[in-house]
């Protein structure tokens, strides 16, 4: 109704001006008759009001569609006996809806093809990578050590690509189960033992035995791996411990990864979970991609876990995963 009144106001004012001009013309010509003039004004305004009422009733569907936000993409309905303007709007909206559906289906198809291609490519790259690692596994010369180091970096990169791609189909690729935290963290440390050795830092596992949480073991393994990898990278050469510990906070279980590295500048802390953000440390540590903590945050959000961070430049960083209402069975 408000939209109709705003649109009809100029028409009403123009017609009123026309009636006043006609009345003024009669007055200037000396043919003024008050009763006839007022009667003419009444007839003009009455006919205009009748036209506006007819127009509103016949185009009510049109104005309701324009002033009401759609809440769903269901098929649009139109009342019987609607005017040509209503029918034109209905055809336009139906056409736009079909076009939108076609584009969405095309996008979904391309996304599925992209996910399939990336997944297959990553798995294909893992085969030659495994061959490279097996080839240099028994060699201790500097050249072989360098090859192993680069192969490990390549493996980490492929793993990140694979998990980033799977985020699009996360709901189809997770399973909540009881996870023993100490066992999972121990596996992560074993997988990254060469990385610890190369960077001269040492793991300190202080997770309570038997402490369990409800989570997805595969995705949680990736999350903890990212936190420990970051802790190693930003503590490289410090010869300090990277402590992974657990704690109970009310009804929640907290898994903490603490390093004694370079720390994160306070100006960067609020942005570290943004995709591709590397901050000041990214200019020093060229391996930073800005995707690790972004994926950590996204995965934890979808698993209903919380991520907390504390850091001080030159002192170190503490990353925590909080499992709300977690099982504390031992």
| Count of discrete structural domains | 3
What is the radius of gyration computed over CA atoms, rounded to a whole number of angstroms? 35 Å
Oligomer: single chain
Number-wise, the strands total 7
Helical stretch tally: 11
Helix and strand string, N-terminal first?
A: HHHHHEHHEEHEEHHHEE
- The stretches of 5 or more residues where confidence is low (pLDDT under 50) are none
Helix content: 55-70%
Strand order of the largest sheet: 2-4-5-7-6
Report the span from N to C terminus. Answer: 65 Å
Which range does the strand content fall in?
A: 5-15%
Which CATH architecture of the largest domain would you pick? 2-Layer Sandwich
What does this structure look like?
- The structure is a single chain.
- The protein has 330 residues and is α+β, with helices and mostly antiparallel strands.
- It folds into three domains: 2-68 and 78-98, no CATH class; 111-169; 177-323, Histidine kinase-like ATPase, C-terminal domain (Heat Shock Protein 90), CATH 3.30.565.
- The protein has helices at residues 2-28, 34-58, 60-67, 84-136, 142-166, 181-191, 193-199, 217-233, 266-269, 279-284, 292-302, and strands at 177-180, 202-206, 212-215, 241-249, 252-259, 306-312, 316-323.
- The strands form two sheets. Strands 2-4-5-7-6 form a five-stranded mixed beta sheet, covered by helices on one side. The protein has a two-stranded antiparallel sheet with strand order 1-3.
- A hairpin with a 3-residue loop joins β6 and β7 (316-323).
- It is elongated.
């Amino acid at each position: 109704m408000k939209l109709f009144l705003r649109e009809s106001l100029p028409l009403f004012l123009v017609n009123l001006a026309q009636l006043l001009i006609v009345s003024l013309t009669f007055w200037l010509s000396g043919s003024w008759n008050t009763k006839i003039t007022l009667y003419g004004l009444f007839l003009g305004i009455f006919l205009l009001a009748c036209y506006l009422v007819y127009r509103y009733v016949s185009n009510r569907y049109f104005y309701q569609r324009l002033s009401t936000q759609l809440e769903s993409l269901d098929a649009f309905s139109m009342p019987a006996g609607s005017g040509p303007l209503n029918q034109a709007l209905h055809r336009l909206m139906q056409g736009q809806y079909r076009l939108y559906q076609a584009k969405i289906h095309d996008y979904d198809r391309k996304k599925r093809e992209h996910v399939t291609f990336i997944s297959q490519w990553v798995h294909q790259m893992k085969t030659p990578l495994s061959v490279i690692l097996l080839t240099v596994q028994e060699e201790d010369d500097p050249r072989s050590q360098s090859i192993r180091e680069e192969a490990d970096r390549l493996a980490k990169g492929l793993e990140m690509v694979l998990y980033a791609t799977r985020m699009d189909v996360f709901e189809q690729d997770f399973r909540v189960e009881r996870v023993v935290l100490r066992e999972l963290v121990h596996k992560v440390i074993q997988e990254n033992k060469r990385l610890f050795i190369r960077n001269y830092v040492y793991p300190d596992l202080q997770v309570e035995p038997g402490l369990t949480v409800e989570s997805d073991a595969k995705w949680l393994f990736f999350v903890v791996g990212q936190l420990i990898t970051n802790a190693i990278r930003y503590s490289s050469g410090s010869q300090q411990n990277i402590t992974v510990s657990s704690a109970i906070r009310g009804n929640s279980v907290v898994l903490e990864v603490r390093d004694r590295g370079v720390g994160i500048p306070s100006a960067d802390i609020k942005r570290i979970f943004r995709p591709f953000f590397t901050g000041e440390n990214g200019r020093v540590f060229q391996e930073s991609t800005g995707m690790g903590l972004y994926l950590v945050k996204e995965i934890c959000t979808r698993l209903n876990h919380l991520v907390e961070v504390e850091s001080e430049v030159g002192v170190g960083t503490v990353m925590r995963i909080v499992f709300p209402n977690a099982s504390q069975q031992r």
